Every structure is written in C-alpha cells, then in structure tokens.
Amino acid sequence: MAVGPSGGTARAAFEFGRTYVVRPKGKHHVWLGDNGSSWSQHLESSPFPNQLPSSLGLSFRRPCVARAIKRRHHGNNLSKLGADRLQLKCIQRESSGNQAESSMNPAINMDGLVEFLYDDLPHTFDDQGIDRTAYEEHVKYRDPITKLSTISWYLFNIALLKTVFYPVFYLHSVKQTGSYDITTRWTVVMKYMLLPWKPELILTGTSVMGINPATGKFCSHVDYWDSIQNNEYFSLEGLLDVFKQLRIYKTPCLETPKYQILKRTANYEVRRYEPFIIVEADGDKLSGSKGFKDVAGYILGKNSSQEKMQMTTPVFTQALDNVLSKVTIQIVLPLEKDMNNLPDPSQEGISLRKVQGGMAAVLKFSGSPLEDVVLEKEMMLRKSLERDGLRPKIGCLLARYNDPGSTWSFMMGWYHHLSTMANEWKSHRA
C-alpha cells in the first residue's frame, strides 16, 4: 500500500506499492510504499533526539537518495578544495556579549563542506578511507555504544569494524542543519563473519557533524540510530538492537528482488526496490495457496517454449482492497529475464507483469502466516506509519520466503520472541 504525509494526498502509487507482508525463513514482513516523494520527506524530516544542540535545524530539503561517489578533489585533502570554496578564518567574538551570533559573518563555506562530505563519506569503509585532515585531532565521536575522543581512535574503530563486520556504507543525504552543524543520513550493512550463519546487521540513522568555526574542521560526530529511542552513551537499548540481529535464522539461497534499506525503525523498514517481473494468477486469501501450482508450473516449463527457470523467492499473495475481494498469487521471475523475451503462459488465467519497484514499508514477523495474524500485522504497520505522519493506502501483500514444512519451528519461535522484546509490543502466535 502506498503512503503519503498526513493530511495530504500521495501521488499515483506505483504497482508495487501497497501493503506488503514478507516472510523469509521463519519471518514475515508487511510493506507499504509510494512513488518516493513523500518517503523522501519522511526520511529527511524525522525528529532528532531532545539532546541535540538548539542550533540544529530539523528540516531537510534534499531528496534522500543514495548518492554516487563523485570525482575526488585533487589530493584528497580538505585544505586543497580551493580558496574560492573554503577560506577558513578565525572568528572574532564580541567581548561585550551582546553581539548576535548571526553578525559574526564567518568565512567558512558550509556548502563546500556539504559537498566534501558527499565525496568523502562513501569511502569510510573502503581502502581509500576518509580524509583525516578534515577532522580535529581531538574530534569527539559518539554513538549509542561507542565513545571516542581522538581522530586516531576514530580511525581505529573504523578499521576494527572493517575487520569483524565487512561493512558497506550508503550515504543518502547531507544537509547543513545549524550555523556550524551538518547532518547526514546513511545506511550501514554489516555481516558478522565470526558466526557460522553469518548474520547481517543493518543500522540506519543520522550523524550530526560539528564544525570548529576557528579552523573549519570537524570537531564532533554524533550518531543517532533510527531503531532505538535512547541514543545516549551507553545505551542498553542499542546493545539489544545489535544482539537481536545476531539471531539464528535460515533463508533459502535463492534469488530475490534487490532492494536497499533506507530507514530501519523498531517497528518497520523503509526500502527502495529495483524493478522485477512476476507471473501471477488469481488466489483466494492472503494466507492461501490457491493458484500456486499454476504460477509455479510456468517457471517449471509449462509455457510456450517449455523453458524451465530457476526458482526464486518470495511467493507473494496480494490483496487489492481492504475487504479481500480480489487476491492474486505471484512468483518472482529470475532477475535477468526481460519482458520482451519471456515465453507466453500455456495456461489460461496466468499473466506476466513487470513491477516497477520503488519505496515500500516492511514489517517483519515470524510464525505461521494465518489470515488473522497477517491482518493483525498489517494493522500494526498502518498504525506505526500513521503515528509517524504517513497515510497508508489500501491493499495488503504477504510474501513468503520459506516453506513452513521445512522450517525448524524453534527457529521461527525464537526469532518471534526476540522481535517482540526488542519492539516492545505484544502479540501471539496462533
């Protein structure tokens, strides 16, 4: 289901955007999405914690999209950006104390620093690394579980994360939010390789970068995670959020639609999906399997050229309205397939359709996806989005990644229990 800001109307929803419920092995998700404009506003205007400096502004205007790495400035040194972009001068404060800060007229080019971060931060975890000359020697770094006070420890922490977690950093936006503050929005995806099942850890949030007006260098870096309320150091909530992502779970090693997580809260995720193709037929209910043999038959060779294709995940069941009067069942085709060269279905009632992708909100849950459970989760997601100022559209889609008959029940139950604890809401399994 697509969503828009409260009190407003979202633009026309793309085909993918309805309410979605997804289920990897032992887990399910509910998704909602739209054409992207209102999601960008939501991602970039999320409230900051109360402890932020009063100088910080709370609004963003730049679209919240992953930015490609631009050509590095010559020498990879902040001091070589050019006098026309960064002329750093000492600020002479008025001794009388009655001169407003706005009259100080600093010569720091904040737009230049914003562009510098767009270029520099994507290198946080690659071999090139960030430009340390842009930071004060005693830069203060803090996130919910880490607190450092020098650039050397800051870089050591980055190196440690690279060794243990193999992180990938996605920068979505950079915006000046105060006289000497710049706020970034990002996603970090990590894999903990020391555990046999190699769990994936995902953190999204914002970083407030403080600038020393006397030097023009970054003197502080404070991270705020979307998934927790208490972002102070040392946050037990932050530790729990990390540990719960180390859980044992099993998903099939099959191809699945590609997406990037833009925001991960305690209750749902905001994702951007790339286009994919589905084969679909009429179904009966969200938790049902009517029509599955027909759509599965298409990829197993029941088509005009008798072509057999690789199995993929997930299997979708989609309701097109709130009363479940129209339900379809869908299977995702291999991503390399193109609508122009696909064989025609050999059976009536089977059709092919390209889903354009786009933004979606996703709520995960585990256990058997019975009809009342799915609808309960959909309602939870709707309430969470409305609480955050978004208006969900009609429709619901359940996506199942695993066959319940081959999933170990203790895995499904354990994950459900951890999700309930971390998300601080109560639910039951049928």
UniProtKB/TrEMBL annotation:
Alphabetized SUPFAM superfamilies for the sequence: Probable bacterial effector-binding domain (SSF55136)
Family: Belongs to the HEBP family.
The name this protein goes by in its record: SOUL heme-binding family protein
Organism: Trapa incisa
